[in-house]
């Protein structure tokens, strides 16, 4: 139904040629923008309603008490928080202040930007449920195993004694104080408005770039790049993505178009994961709380996890796609 409306708007109202690259690009842009915005609002509102039943303090206490499963539950909580890599840092620091073990806190920090409700909605809309489910499992696995490894290395000595707490940006609340169902529904709607307000421009930028790549970048050019990098396409994609900073709302549409143009699935997702989970601004902000050596170790372990996951996705591409 939506596609029919967009086709009518593009080719009948705007009078664009359905066979032209401009017409196809604008049709692509309008359809995906409207679809993703609607999915984002509905899903974020629903998840916000469900998350309003759990307080942040209860989560802290509960995670500390889960000795054998602490890394898993920290990663799971990270997947449920709607934060980017930089926005996760205040909660990361508050966990350290609360006495949560270092490796467990890193499980949260790694997974939080890798998986969140709007990224999941975007991926379902672009990649489908099978790839999205595999991505969620891989993201939580990276958080769990990287956090466990960091915990085993006993790196607490690299945490700064005078940890600086502060708001890196205005975040949506995790849950309302009111207990009524009506107020929780209102909270879910308000959180949907809050998150969509923050990322709508990134959705449009990402879809716009995706539309340009989809309609103007020749398939042969993409295949040529893949052929030249070969087996090393995954680490190259991940290393290119590490120093970059961008919203998943902008990166997901680009990743899916690269995949459609011939990039292997794991290579496209490795680039997306690196941009989402690791960034220069995040490293600068983390320097407030820890020494440079720990930041390098964190970035290194997470990058290796992303590269390994990228190769797995490439291997399973025929099953998932």
Question: Can you put this structure into words, describing what you see?
Answer:
This protein has one domain (2-8, 22-320). By secondary structure, it is mainly alpha-helical. It is built from 16 helices and no strands. The longest helix has 36 residues, at 181-216. The model is unreliable at 164-171 (pLDDT under 50).
Q: Summary?
A:
The chain is an all-alpha fold and 321 residues long. The chain has one domain.
Mean of pLDDT: 78
Helix residue percentage? over 70%
Uncertain ranges: 164-171
Kindly report the oligomeric state of this protein. single chain
Question: Structural class, from secondary structure content?
Answer: mainly alpha
Overall, the morphology is globular
Largest sheet entry: none
Task: List its salient traits.
74% helix, 16 helices, 321 residues, mainly alpha
Topology:
Layout lengths: L1 H12 L7 H31 L4 H10 L4 H11 L8 H9 L4 H13 L2 H11 L1 H24 L28 H36 L2 H11 L3 H9 L6 H13 L4 H13 L2 H7 L5 H24 L1 H4 L1
């Amino acid at each position: 139904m939506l596609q029919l409306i967009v086709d009518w708007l593009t080719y009948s109202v705007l009078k664009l040629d359905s066979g032209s690259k401009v017409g196809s690009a604008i049709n692509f842009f309008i359809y995906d923008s409207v679809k993703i915005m609607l999915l984002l609002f509905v899903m974020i509102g629903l998840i916000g309603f469900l998350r309003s039943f759990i307080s942040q303090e209860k989560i802290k206490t509960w995670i500390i008490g889960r000795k054998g499963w602490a890394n898993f539950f920290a990663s799971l909580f990270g997947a449920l928080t709607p934060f980017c890599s930089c926005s996760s840092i205040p909660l990361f620091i508050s966990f350290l202040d609360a006495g949560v073990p270092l490796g467990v806190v890193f499980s949260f920090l790694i997974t939080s930007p890798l998986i969140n409700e709007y990224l999941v909605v975007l991926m379902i809309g672009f990649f489908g449920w099978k790839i999205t489910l595999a991505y969620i499992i891989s993201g939580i696995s990276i958080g769990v195993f990287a956090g466990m490894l960091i915990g085993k290395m006993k790196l607490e000595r690299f945490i700064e004694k005078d940890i600086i707490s502060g708001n890196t940006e205005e975040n949506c609340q995790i849950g309302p104080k009111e207990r009524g169902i009506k107020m929780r529904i209102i909270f879910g709607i308000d959180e949907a408005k809050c998150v969509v307000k923050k990322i709508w421009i990134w959705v449009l930028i990402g879809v716009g770039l995706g539309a340009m790549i989809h309609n103007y970048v020749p398939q042969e050019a993409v295949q040529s790049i893949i052929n030249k990098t070969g087996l090393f396409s995954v680490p190259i994609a991940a290393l290119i993505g590490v120093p970059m900073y961008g919203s998943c709302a902008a990166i997901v549409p680009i990743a899916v178009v690269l995949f459609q143009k011939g990039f292997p699935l794991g290579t496209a997702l490795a680039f997306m994961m690196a941009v989402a989970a690791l960034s220069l601004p995040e490293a600068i902000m983390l320097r407030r709380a820890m020494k440079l050596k720990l930041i390098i170790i964190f970035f290194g372990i997470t990058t290796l996890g992303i590269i390994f996951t990228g190769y797995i996705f490439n291997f399973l591409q025929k099953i998932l796609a």
